[in-house]
Design a protein that fits this description.
Elements (H helix, E strand, L loop, with lengths): L2 H11 L13 H13 L14 H10 L5 H8 L1 E2 L11 E6 L2 E7 L3 E6 L3 E6 L5 E4 L1
Antiparallel strand pairs: 1-6, 2-3, 2-6, 3-4, 4-5
Length: 133
């Protein structure tokens, strides 16, 4: 099925999702749930036990041998050469303030989970790394 149609279904399914909550509904969970929805494979299965802080998330990544969340994404997904290579449904890594986060490419924009407003979109050129599920 067309990835744009699947992405629309996925985003629509989240309309009643609670707002941002680290470890429960954040950018990493949002993107990983998309990959699971799309492929049936959970890229963060061993991290689903939850993390209540960025420090705990970093410790869990380090214990698994990853220096950052983007390195985990690169190990589980195909890394692309940049946002110009992105297609609808690809996973984007970007930075909000000092923190790295993830979103889903929807065309010329990226669907993201914003801490204050919930689901939102930002421009595609904000991506720092791109991954294809």
């Amino acid at each position: 099925m067309d990835r744009a149609v699947l992405l629309h279904r996925y985003i629509t399914s989240l309309r009643e999702t609670p707002r941002y909550r680290l470890g429960q509904f954040d950018g990493a969970i949002f993107a990983a749930d998309w990959v699971l929805f799309l492929t049936g494979a959970d890229p963060i299965a061993e991290f689903r036990s939850g993390y209540a802080s960025r420090r705990v998330a970093a410790e869990q990544l380090a214990e698994a041998g990853f220096s950052a969340a983007g390195d985990l994404a690169a190990a589980r997904l195909q890394e692309l050469s940049g946002w110009c290579a992105a297609r609808v449904g690809d996973v984007a890594q970007l930075h909000q303030g000092r923190a790295a986060c993830f979103g889903i490419v929807g065309g010329a924009y990226i669907h993201v989970v914003h801490p204050r407003v919930g689901l939102d979109v930002i421009r595609l050129s904000a991506a720092t790394r791109m991954f294809r599920p």
